[in-house]
Amino acid sequence: MQITLLGATGPTGQQVLTQALEGGHGVTALVRDPARLPQRGGSRVTVITGDATVAGDVAGAVAGSDAVISALGPGKDFKSTLATRTTAALLPAMATGKAKRLVWLSALGAGNSSRQQSVVQAAASKLLMGKLMADKGVADGELEAGAPNCTVVLPVMLTNGPRTAAYKVVDADTHTGRIGGRISRADVADYLLGAATGKYEAKGRVVLTR
To answer: Measured between alpha carbons, how far is 86 from 194 in angstroms, rounded to an integer?
Structure first.
């Protein structure tokens, strides 16, 4: 299938792109700087230069795809509003384009999911990333309301470990306890791709942990 990928040059997005190509899928990558995309010359990679917060750029990237995966991250900007700015551009594109399946990478600690973090991680998130997590929470809620066939993925702390596929998927809307631990970006990418391609049927919000 054809997948539009936002955040393809980031550490998790690179994992998604690599795994998608290994699985035989085609990928349309919306990137600001194509030079940062190692796979840009691949026969199944369509590179579109643009910005994920610009509605016209996103609409062009989504057109013709069967599903959309957002693996965007703010880098080291802990006050970033990237999530809500991307959502504002993405929702209209999803409403009018062919792609109806959306898988959105957020983070455990976004919005009210902070109550499900471990005590230590919740305190660290509030202290260092309060504005960022609040923005992610708003974006997550907007996507749940505006994109019915959407899965919002809330991983615990990320690492650069290997792909194991030995992770747990927890329903964020029904789980009442706290969840700690770490998970590799490769395993997160495995789930993002599986959710986008129909391997997993999850909708709503899910927490990923080991």
So the answer is: 22
Interatomic CA distance for residues 207 and 210, integer angstroms = 10
Q: How many CA atoms lie within 13 A of 82 on its CB side?
A: 19
Sorted by sequence, the CB contacts under 8 Å of residue 129 that are 6+ apart come out as 78, 109
pLDDT digits (tens, 9 = 90+) for 27-51: 999 999 999 999 999 999 999 999 9
CATH of residue 123's domain is 3.40.50.720
Identify residue 143 by its one-letter amino acid code.
Answer: L
What average pLDDT does this structure show over 8-26? 98
Query: How many CA atoms within 13 Å lie on the side-chain side of 141?
Result: 10
Q: Of 51, 62, 53, whose CA–CA distance to 27 is shortest?
A: 62
Give the structural domain span for 83: 2-209
Percent pLDDT > 90 in the chain is: 82
